[in-house]
Amino acid sequence: MDNFLYLAASGATQNMNALGVHANNLANAKSDAFKADMHQARSMQAYGEGLPTRVFAMEERPASNFDSGALKTTGRAMDVAIKGQGWLVVQDGNGGEGLTRAGALRFDETGMLLNNQGRPVLGEAGPIFAPLPIEKVEIAVDGMVTVRPQGAPADGFEEVGQLRLSNPEVANLTKGEDGLFRDLDNDNYPTDITVQLQSGTLEGSNVNPVEEMVGMLAAQRQFDMQIKLMKTAEENDQAGSRMMDV
Amino acid sequence: MHSALWISKTGLDAQQTDIANISNNLANASTVGFKKSRAVFEDLLYQTVNQAGGISSQETKMPAGLTLGAGTKVTATQRVFTQGTVQSTDNSLDMMVDGAGFFQIQLPDGNIGYTRNGQFALDEEGQLVTPGSGYLLDPGIAVPDNAQSITVSTDGEVSVRLNGETENQVVGQIEIANFINPTGLEPIGQNLYLQTGASGDAVIGTPGLDGMGSILQGALESSNVNVTEELVNMIESQRVYEMNSKVISTVDEMLSNLNQQL
C-alpha cells in the first residue's frame, strides 16, 4: 500500500485537532477575558531511510489571540478590566506566577484578595490582605486597592495594597495547561505603571464566532478531502491486487 | 471518539446552566429584596498534544506545540449585592436597608436566616414576622394591640403611639447583620440566606452605625435584576449554545463521511 495513505491519515488527524481548537474557542465564548487560541498546520519532513519524499502535516498552536475582549459593565466595584494591554499577576497552583486578565475579584474569609478562579492576586509584596470586616472596596485606575473597614468614617479608606499590573511582551507569552499565560524565558513580571484598570467592568471573551465557524468549516472540508485521498489509495491498492489476479 | 465532541458538550452544558440562572433572575425581577446572580465561566485545563520545544530532527526543535483546551465550565454563580431601587409604599410595616446589611429572621429550626426583604407583617400576638411564612424577626419586636401607629427610626428603633397617649413608647430595636463576603451566603429560598464558611460570621450592629445600612420605613427595596442586561445575556448564551451544537453536528458529519467513504 502506498505511503500516501499515511500522509492523508496524518492530515485528517491534524484537521481533527484543528477542530478541537475551534471547539474550545467556541465553548469559551462567554468565559471572562478568555483569549482565543490560534492554530496552524506546518509541514513536517519524515526523515529516515530512502528518499525524503514524505512530508507530514503537523498542527500547532503558535499563539493565542491577544486582542482585548468586549468590555461589559457590571457595576460591581471589585470587577476590574484592563484598558488596552497589560496583565494581572496571580499565583498559580505551584506557588509560581502567571498572568491573567480575568478581573472578577473577591476577598476570601481570611481577607485575601482572589480572582474568580480562586487564585491569589499578587501585589508588589505577594498576596494582598485586607482587614476584615470590609464595608466598601475601591480599586483605582493604577491598581491601588483601598477599603473602608466596617465602622470607619466615610473618609476612612485604607490602602491595603497595589495590584501588580505587568506588561511583558505578548510575543513571548504562552498559555499554560491551567489557562494562565507565562513568559517561559523570563519568569519575572515587573510593574508597568502605564497599565490602567477600569473598575465596574469586566472584559469578555475575545472569541470571534464568525472566524471560528469559518475555520471549523474549512477544517471539515479539508478532512473530507483527506478521506477522498484515503479512498483513492484504497482504489489504487485494489487495482494493483487485481493485476495480480490474472 | 473525537475530543471536539466533548469540548462542545461542555459548552452546551455551561450555556444551559447560564440560561437557567438568567431565567431565575428574570422570574424574580419583581421579588422584593432579590439579588441577581451571574454565572462565572472559566476555561478548563489544557492538554498537551505536541510539546513545544520537542525534537523535530537531530538538530532542530519545534518552535510551537499544540495544546488543546478541554472546554469550559460554570465555576460559580456569583450573587451580586448591589442595592436595588427604592420603592415607596407608605406602609408602616414595610422597611428596607439602605446600605449594607440584612434583617435577621428566626427560622423554625433555631438558625438565623438573613434577608433584604423588609415586607413585615404582624402575627396574632402582635410580633413582627415575615409575610410569607410568618417567621419571627430577630430580636423579636411585639407591637401592643392598642397601638395607633408604628414608627421605625433610621437607626432601627421601633416605637408605637398607644391609644389615648401623646408620647411614643419604644417597643424594640431592630438589629442588622452584615458579612465580610455576602457573595458566600447560601440562598435557601423565601428571600432568605444562611451564613456559610465562605461568608464569614455575621457582624451584628445598629442600623446606620459602624458601616451598617440604615433603615427606611415605608419603602421596599426592589430586586436588582436589570431586565435588559438579562435579555442581552440570554441572547448571547443562546447563540453560543447554537454554535457549540454546530460543532457537534460538524464532527458528526465528518465521522459519518469517514465511515461511509472508507
Automatic annotation (TrEMBL), chain A:
N-terminal signal peptide: none
Any matching Pfam family: LlgE_F_G_D1
Claim: Nucleotidyltransferase is one of the keywords in the record: no
UniProtKB keywords: Bacterial flagellum, Cell projection, Cilium, Flagellum
Record-stated family: Belongs to the flagella basal body rod proteins family.
Record text on subunit structure and interactions: The basal body constitutes a major portion of the flagellar organelle and consists of five rings (E,L,P,S, and M) mounted on a central rod. The rod consists of about 26 subunits of FlgG in the distal portion, and FlgB, FlgC and FlgF are thought to build up the proximal portion of the rod with about 6 subunits each.
Protein name listed in UniProt: Flagellar basal-body rod protein FlgF
Organism: Ferrimonas lipolytica
TrEMBL record, chain B:
One cellular-component annotation, GO: bacterial-type flagellum basal body, distal rod
Predominant location category: other
Domain Flagellar hook protein FlgE/F/G-like D1: 96-160
Residues in Flagellar basal body rod protein N-terminal domain copies: 10-35
Keyword Cell membrane found: no
One BP term from GO: bacterial-type flagellum-dependent swarming motility
Keywords: Bacterial flagellum, Cell projection, Cilium, Flagellum
Record keyword rRNA-binding present: no
Coiled coil segments of this chain: none
Residues annotated as domain Flagellar basal-body/hook protein C-terminal: 217-260
Top-level division of the source organism's lineage: Bacteria
Description of how the protein assembles with itself and partners: The basal body constitutes a major portion of the flagellar organelle and consists of four rings (L,P,S, and M) mounted on a central rod. The rod consists of about 26 subunits of FlgG in the distal portion, and FlgB, FlgC and FlgF are thought to build up the proximal portion of the rod with about 6 subunits each.
Protein known as: Flagellar basal-body rod protein FlgG
Organism: Ferrimonas lipolytica
Phylogenetic lineage: Bacteria, Pseudomonadati, Pseudomonadota, Gammaproteobacteria, Alteromonadales
Gene it is expressed from: flgG
